[in-house]
Amino acid sequence: MTLEQVSVAFGIPVEEILSAFSLPSDTPPSTALKDLESETFDVTALRTWITEYKSSHP
Amino acid sequence: MHVPPGESLRTSTASPRPIVRSAGSRSLQYIASSGSFDLATHLSNLVVAAAVLISALLLRSAFCTGSVRSDSFRTSSRIQRWIQKRFVPYGKLFAASIAVVLRRGLFSINTWLREIRRTGLAVTGAAIYGVMVFRDYDPWSALINIAEWTYTPGLVVLGLTLVGSFFVERPWCAMPVRSGGQRAARQAEPGLPQAGCGFLYDLQDLHQCLSDGSEVHTARRSPAWTVFPASNVWVSVRAKARWKSASACHSRRNKEIKMRINPFVYGVIVVALFMGIIYGFQGAGVWSTSGKVTGSGERVAPSASDVNSIKGG
Predict the structure, then answer these.
(1) Closest residue by Cα to residue B60 from B203, B280, B202, B261
(2) pTM, rounded to two decimals
(3) Which of A36, A48, B69, B184 lies at a 20 to 30 A Cα distance from B279?
């Protein structure tokens, strides 16, 4: 899955996802999540963050 | 050499690989414990597995002996029988030559292969040579790979097996895969010369037949050794007599289970049932070959109500 798919599905701007995980702001939305894996970003952390984000932005 | 199906190909393919053999147990264990598919398993795998099971239940061993086991193509092919009839002299000569080669060469390999069996060969191939032996070289796996539009050296082995089956009984069956026939042969007649696979399997039948309490005719006159009728291999008279006895026994068995349906019609029914099940599930939308796309080929999108639907792949 890509950043754009997650952004569209959960209604979260790509820019917010990038800044939340300190990812480069020029990261293409079409980038696959697996290609972003690093010490600061992984799918599990993204799920947790989205859950918290949705609870704070109902 | 081998390209994993589905995820890395432009056209996703249905693969029974995650369901069959050792990979199947892993997949089923994962599904049972987690309640979801692992990365290598999709609906298509389950549908193909269901088709295999249903076909096997309704049409006995049609799938296993008719579609999968390469060495069984010979038994159901009239074309091959036709060829064998026309090339009997050449076939006998070829079979005799192969039997000698097998007896002196390949079956000596089987003696120690029997000790390490499949696991040892697989581990050795992977650990020392980095080769997945039974994935890349086994003709059975080659058939699966064909379904995935991938081609391995096993396809060459499969081709050689099929061509060889025109001339000799089950050229692949016992040498690298099984040794039950050889054991049965030794039980039936200690010191028996080792010959082709079919010969050994026939002797396995013989042994089972005799175990059922069938009559045993044992010739005790000399010469002690004679030519075995099927493969021109020298065997003891006692073994030959047992063979004749078992042949009669086997014939009676064949009469009891003789197929009353035309083999071609039977084959059509098998294929129609098997493919019908698959197309039926596809038509009902119960089908996917990749975690990235749906059954209709659309990209899978995460569900807004479930963060666990976010996949990293």
Answers:
(1) B261
(2) 0.34
(3) B69
User: How many other C-beta atoms can be found within 10 angstroms of the C-beta atom of residue B275?
Assistant: 12
DSSP A34: G
Chain segment A22-51, per-residue pLDDT in tens: 888 888 888 888 788 887 888 888 888 888
Q: Using the beta-carbon criterion (under 8 Å), do B308 and A47 form an inter-chain contact?
A: yes
Instruction: Please state, as a whole number, how many other Cβ atoms lie within 10 Å of the Cβ of residue B267.
Output: 16
Residue A33 near residue B310, CB atoms below 8 Å = yes
| ipTM summary value | 0.80
Residue linked to tokens 């414990």: B33
| C-beta atoms of A47 and B302 within 8 A | no
pLDDT tens track for B75-129: 445 555 555 566 555 556 666 666 666 665 655 555 555 555 556 666 666 667 6
Contacts of A8 in chain B (CB under 8 A): 301
Q: How far apart, in whole angstroms, are the C-alpha atoms of residue B266 and residue A54?
A: 59
Cβ distance A1 to B300 less than 8 Å, yes or no, reads: yes
Which candidate, B114, B107, B132, places its Cα nearest to that of B22? B132
